[in-house]
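Sequence and fold
=================
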Amino acid sequence: MGGIWAIARHTVAASMRMKIALFFIVLLGVLTLGLPFAAEGDASVSGAVQSFLAYSIGAVSFLLSCLTVFLAWTLSSEIVGKQILTLMTKPLGRSQYVLGKWLGIIILDGVLLLFSGIIIYGMTMYIASREPRDEFDKHKLNTQILQARHASKFILPDFTAVADAQFEKNITEGVYANIEDFDEAKEKFRLLDYLQKRWRSVWPLEMRQFEFEDVRCDRSSPDATIQIRYESRVANYPPNEILQCQWYVGNRQKDTELYHFNRRDVIDRRHTLTVPADAVAEDNTLLVTFLNVDPSVPEGAMQHPATVIFEGDDSIQVLFSVSSFWSNLVRTLLLVMCRLAFLAAFAVSAATVVSFPVAALASLVVYTLAAMRGFISDSADWLYDEGVPMLLQTAIDNVFAASYFLIPDFSQFNGIENLVDGRNVPLMWVLLGIGKLVFIKTGILLLIGCLLFHRREVSEVSL
């Protein structure tokens, strides 16, 4: 272990003497300290905070990823310059050398990420201290952005029994008598899917109730609030593209307060209702009722025939605070650190085999593939929908399987969007990042790098 620490300290010292490392450090400082004066968002304080968080953490992650790749030069330079021959004469194993190089890069990345995180937090508080544009801006900043809120989804009713009963009725009435190759399972699934879609569609003058469980918010404080976030698709919408509707939040049967909202919502946008936390029952359940009724139309008059459709399971969510902004930022930066650990392992392992330019290029390609993995997978699915021959589909699948055996999907370990939106970055994401990225994938890469370096003749120059 002493040899690994010695190489790690040597790597940190050598990296600090590199001009490119100093360039990245200065660039990190300029960006994190200068962005608060350039981030405006939508001219509100809350928008400026969101813009700063998104750009600053994204820029820090990208710059440190590039720096991680270039720091692998210390290994290649010692091989090319023959300094490694001196190190190999000491009681130092080659595996210790590789692990020490990786650890040194990680230590430097961690220190820079820590200081960047402190600056980002300080600059965020600086922006948040500005005079809000209005009360809505102030409320959004304090209750939605500078929070770590958990999003709870509604409970979809179970229509299995209803679908089975309808299926039996259709059998009795001979609905499927003349259908060839009739598939009972597919028909039951079709009926179940129809019932679920019908429930999600709220026709004019209809009401729909959404139930939520495990809403563990603070009900004791009179200032405590929760947010109802919803997004719907509207069919036959009014000419002015404004949906007028009503919401009720609370359950009188469980002795909670009942809050009523008359809404004028622009269609195809996400909307948020802020509700006092005492609408949540003591058993941590919440009842949200939607009425597709225009409150401006007199009773008995003709309503506009707009149908509101809540398609996804996250079309209506309840958000409530579970942690602080600072802890949310820490978890986001830990996810960045997990990605840097993987990238450092790949760059060091590649540098043990090939020259630095080739290793750097390969590392940047891997970084790009990991960052775009979700987009590439979606593109492949689109190709299948366009009628690609089965042989080509198989070839594409095999290429993806080979390419992504070790290359992770960085989007699964990215908490920036949640942080900017004031949603909780789950600790489980961090644990999965440490387990899958650091211990498994990074461990495999370092093992491969050690094995390859053991077989390499260090007196030869890489091409």
